[in-house]
Every structure is written in structure tokens, then in C-alpha cells.
Structure of MFS transporter:
Amino acid sequence: MSQLTGFRRWIAFVAVILGYFMALLDTTIVHVTLPEMTRHFHTTMDNMSWIVNGYNLVFAVFLVTASRIADQFGRKRLFLIGTALFIATSILCGLSSSVEAMVFFRVLQGLSAAIVVPVTIPLAANLFPKEKHGMVLGIWGAISSLAAASGPTLGGILTDSIGWEAIFFVNVPIGIAAIGLTIPLVRESMDASAGRRLDWLGMLTLSASLFFLTFGLINVSDWGWNSVKLIGSFAAFLVCLILFLAVERRTAEPMLPLWLLRIVPFNGAVLALMVLGAGMTATSYLMSYFLTGILGHSVLHAGVTISAMSLTSMVISAIAGGLSNKYGSRWFVAAGVAVLALSVYLDGSLTVNSTEWSVIWRLALSGVGIGLSIAPVMGASIRNVPEEKVGIASGITNMSRAIDSVLGVAILVSVLNGALNHYGADIAGKENQRSASNAVLSDEAKQVLLERAGRLEQRPSPVDATDAKNAEEQDAFVASFRHTFHVAGWLLLPGIPFALISDRRRGQRLASGSSTKNASQHQPQANAP
């Protein structure tokens, strides 16, 4: 643990949190500016989507690798390198003169975020004694919620008042402050048992497997679940994953000690976090389209409304983190998953006539569920591994959360499209306007939501009540969202049993030795929840 005390310790903590906030802010701040950038570069939304997808792809692929390198060569060192790279790529993104350049720099920015994010937990935990780790992770979770809440709003304000370039330049002062405070205040830490030899083959096979998985999920809405491309991508993922496991079993210094995956509470925490990642995606992703496509909100208005979820989560997370460290995490996480599942299911009862308040209280309820679960489950994931393995554990949990968010979007888009076709067929059948073989909602109608979600300015209601055809189509949209929200709510329920095995009673930490060998001797104990 760091020797800093009092005010200096908290300033060091702020330094680490600033880097984390900066990296997470860029996952949400870009979305609201995509339409403006599309007009600026005179291109299509399909091309612009890779500004988001390129970032997310590289971020998910390199989280574990970056964690391992940080454990070997210094977490502070990697944090500084990642933050400096993030500043540089932010400037380059803001100065980009073409879509191709923008996508390239966003890929590099995703790489730098993958370096920064996973090391923030072990760096922050090293600043405080173990009994304070729950409180630290509570604040960490609150900052995560703050970044999610402020991204769309800040992005809209900066774009409207200055220009889209400002959303990238805003990272520069944040990053400089993080580096300036980290250098003198944050102590270097690493995994003494990790060794210095790089497991190049392990890194290559793991990165390749994660690339094929994430790339396939990102493109599933275009390819389809039965496409040869998607099946090939998943097959390549499985082949690379098997090769990775074979390499890790044979190498003397594996990048990922496989015995970590035999710790039942750690596995429970990772699986619960995956379910939570999908749930958070369901709420924010689906709700943003519902608000813009059905209720006629501008993207900025929708972002401000959805911030009710993030702000509530921020408050609850700060409280739940400290309590879970004292009483154990599993009941907090189980309750959080249950509340989130209920709130997502209740989202399905919203209609075109729903008031702002009816949306906000559902989002706030989702925030309660997220706040009850995220910080406690992250605390459980590092509390139930040996202390020197906190870094790689952080990489695994962040990677699982990132990939499952992509998986959540892929599943929900498929469910929503299927529901649109189903309810559109019912409407077409009632109107007797199409043959049975052609009775599906038109492609043009299905694009209404996407088109409306891509507009920055305020628009009237997407449906003219005097136009019978549009009214019927809107009914199909509302019914489709209802079905998708209900499916998402049910899909969250498996997170409850995962949560119940995610921690020991009273938050008792797994004892750890001074080496991997000593740590692995604790595995029989680790298999009992």
C-alpha cells in the first residue's frame, strides 16, 4: 500500500480517477456528435459508425493484454503511457480531415483507453488499506456513472456551442492534470510474481480470439445470425481460444494464470458483471431510441433524460461500495440485478403518451439496480483473488463487461428487428394491403427510428395522428419496443444466481502468498462460496 496519507492520498486518487473518467467519457460523448460529423465529412452513417466500432473493438481486444503488461512492468508506467497516448490521439481526432484518418486515430484512442482503464482499479486500491477498498470501488463506480451521464449532455453542448472537434479537445486538460498529479503522488506497483518474460504467443492468440468475437458481434446486424461471415468469425474465435488455452497450459509464465478461472467467486463476479453489462446496454441503448423515435425528443434531450439513471447510480454506488466491503457483496449484487431486471421490464409499459416523469422514475430505478451491483461486484472480483493478481483480474472483468455490452446490442437489435417485422405483418394483414408473402413492415418504416435518432435538432412527434398508416406503424414500433424491453428484463434474471456465488460471507478476502505458486495453493478454499 502507498505511504501517502490524508489530503495527498486523496489527490493521488483524483489523479487516477481523472484518467479513468477521461477514457470512459469518450465511449459516450461521441455518439451525440455522429450526425454532425457525418455532414462535415460528407459521408454516410454506416461509414461513421466505425468511429464508434473501431474504438470499442480495440478497447475490448487489448484490455487483458494491457493488464498483464502493466502487472509485469509497472501499472503507473502504463497508466502514464496510456494517458499520454490518449491525449495525443484526442488532438489528432479533432484535427482529422477525413473519415479514414478519424477512424485510424479512434482505433489508437481505443488502444490507449484499454491501457488506462484496467490499471485504475489496482492503482486506486494500492492507495488505501484493504478495509477501505469497498469505499474506493464505490467512488470508482460513481465516477463511471458520472462519465456515462455527462457524455451525451457535454457532447451536445460542446458541439452546439463550439463544434464537434471540441469533444476530443476536452480530453487534453483532463489528461494533462492526470499526468501532472500522478507523477509525483502515485507510487509504482506491479505483480512481483509475474516475471518479465512476455508471453507473445498467449497475447497473440487471446487478442485474435477476442478480435474475431467482437468483430462478429459488431457486424451481426448487417450480416445476420445465420450468415457464413458470422459463423466463420465465431469459428475463428473458438480456434484461437483453444490455441490460447493450450499455450497457457504449456508456458512457464502465462499471461493469464488459468487457475484464476477455477476460483468460483471470481467466476461468479465475472458472469454477473457480463449480465449487468447487457442490462445497462439494454436500458441506455433501447431507451435512447425510444425517446428519439417514439416520443420525438432531440438526442440532447434524450441524453439529459437518460442521465437520471446514471446520476442515481452514482449516488447508490458510492453507498453500496463501502457497505459491501463490510457485509459482503453477493446480496447487494443479487438485489441490484433483480431491481435492474424489473426496471427494464417496466420500460416495456411506456407508450407514445408517456410523460417525462414516467420515463425518469423508471430510469432512476434502473440506476438503483446498477448502483447496488456494479461497485460491489467489482469489489468481489478483486477481493477473491490474491492481492498481486488484482491487475489481471481487473483486465478480465473489464473485458467481459465490454464484450457483453457489444453482445447485448447485437441480441437486442435482432429482437427489435424481429418484433418490427412481426407486428408490421399483423398491421399489414389487417389492412389487407399486401400479400401474405410480403406482409412485413417496410424497410423505410424500420429506418424511421434510426433517422430520427440521428438528428440533433428538436422534431415534432414522429407520427401524425391524422395519418392512419403512420399511426399503425407507430403502434408497431411501440409494441416492438415493449416486446424487446420484456425480453431484456427476462434475460437479466440469470445474473441473480451468478451474483449469489460472487463473494464469500462478510467480504472475507482470499489469502494470498507472495508468488503465483503460493497463491494457487489457495484454490481448494476458493471453490467454496
In short: DSSP finds 21 helices and no strands in the chain.
